[in-house]
Amino acid sequence: MLNFSDIKNLIQHNRIADFVKLNKLTPRDIAEFANRHTQWAGKMFQHLDPKHAARAFKFLRRKKQEQIINSLPEEKAAELLNAMQPDDRTAFLEELSGNHVKELLKILTPENRAETLELLGYAEGSVGRLMTPDYVSIKKEETCEQVLAYIRQRGQATETLNWLFVIDEKGVLIDDVNIKDFLIVDPLTKVSEIMDNQFVALKVNDAQKEAILVFRNHSRYALPVVDDKGILLGIVTLDDVLRLAESEGTREIQKIGGSEALDEPYNTIPFGSLIRKRAGWLIILFLGEMLTATAMGHFEDEISKAVVLALFIPLIISSGGNSGSQASSIIIRAMALGEIGFADWWRVIRREILSGLVLGTILGIVGFLRVAIWQELHIQTYGLHWIKVASTVFFSLIGVVMWGTVSGSTLPLILKRLGADPAASSAPFVATLVDVTGLVIYFSVAYIIMRGTLL
Fold it and tell me: Which of 52-56, 81-85, 226-230, 249-253 has the highest mean pLDDT?
């Protein structure tokens, strides 16, 4: 068994053939030696098996951990950090300064980096979970020649070179500059001379959906991410945002269709999970449709007196449901694109009332003509009062379609205001709501028009 003197002698004389003996030491022995002998600790960790080193690393004092990481070559530091357990790695990183954490995140594997960012405390769905620390930062005092030389030396390790980010001595972002600006000026031009002091940045705690909107509005390949003090923490690139946008779009479409988001491809999701995610909404919609039967029971006397009214029930309620589904889908997508918000509620209602009036009138005319033509051709006789039947269909369609468009457009806005997901106001849900109220509108109009004749 090696004692501390043996370990020190082995490392001091660089006896490579004997370094394998270091892995036979217990993690606590390694940590104790490293805590006592700072000058040899870094050399020792270079020659340990990464997994064995990771087990010993967590027993080191915080300051000693930082010293050892700083003393290791980048590839050895990467092996050590990637071999650590997620909680041990996070416990170490959360004690460091933001700039140091940013540098160490660069050497983690993509999987470990994503996991570490999550454990470091960035909220789920925040920009912090989306960013990468692989970027080029420069100072305004540097010349373009120096910047390009740095890029040639270290640029290969960065995710993108389209944009370079100017920071001050505290790491605060002060500008971003397109790489082409460095290629068209004199090499001795200073960075400060080509800065325009105008930049767009994401906040690390912003929602990821906000990043999609910012990228869409500014047509950028990469955007910087800063904390509340303006310190540059990382960047978000377009490819990550495109994947996010695709994922969000898929989730919204699935919710609009009347099910929970699947969260994984259709071909790979377990059958049981597929059923669970669809059954809940179907049960809710089924219970909602039961109210339709209740509403029809309320108008049982009217139906018995004028059986002809029952013929148009599917026509009326489907038209209201379809118009509501249209409006809901349009508004949800407009909200997702940032085109409208709750503050636009009155403008939305005005437009949808007018749209519902026009669309309802168009359908009402078609419905009126259908009754008239069938009556004229004697395909189906609606009796002496066929005009009242046609008028009932006409005005009912106007009312039901207007109600459908207003309901379908306002429900997503209300849910958004309450902090819920607007996509939850799916087309089937709106259709169910409009089915029930559409019956009330239909029979109310019929009672007003046919009172004293058929009713």
Answer: 226-230
What are the Cα distances from residue 426, in Å, to 15, 131, 333?
70, 31, 12
Residue 61 has which token pair? 């004092």
Domain that holds residue 367: 271-450
Q: Which of 151, 76, 131 is nearest to 107 (CA)?
A: 76
Assess whether 164 and 279 both reside in one domain: no
Which residue spans within 116-172 are E strands per DSSP? 137-138, 163-167
Domain count, the chain: 3
Are 223 and 166 in contact by the 8 Å Cβ rule? The answer is no
Residues 176 and 221 in one domain: yes
Which residue, among 222, 278, 288, 221, has the nearest Cα to 254 in the 3D structure? 278
Picking from 165, 232, 174, 243, the residue whose alpha carbon sits closest to that of residue 208 is 243
pTM: 0.55
Smallest CA-to-CA distance from 225 within 128, 113, 111, 158 is with: 128
Tell me, yes or no, whether 408 and 290 share the same domain.
Answer: yes
CA distances from 82 to 87, 105, 181 (A): 12, 10, 37
- Taking the C-alpha atoms of residue 454 and residue 28, their distance in angstroms, rounded to an integer, is 94
In a domain, 129, yes or no: no
Q: How far apart are CA 265 and CA 268, in angstroms?
A: 6
Whether 445 and 299 map to the same domain: the answer is: yes
Which CATH number covers residue 182? 3.10.580.10
- Would you say how long the chain is, in residues? 455
Quick count: other Cβ atoms within 10 Å of Cβ 9?
13
293-351 pLDDT, tens digit each: 676 666 666 666 667 777 888 888 888 888 888 888 888 878 877 788 888 888 889 99
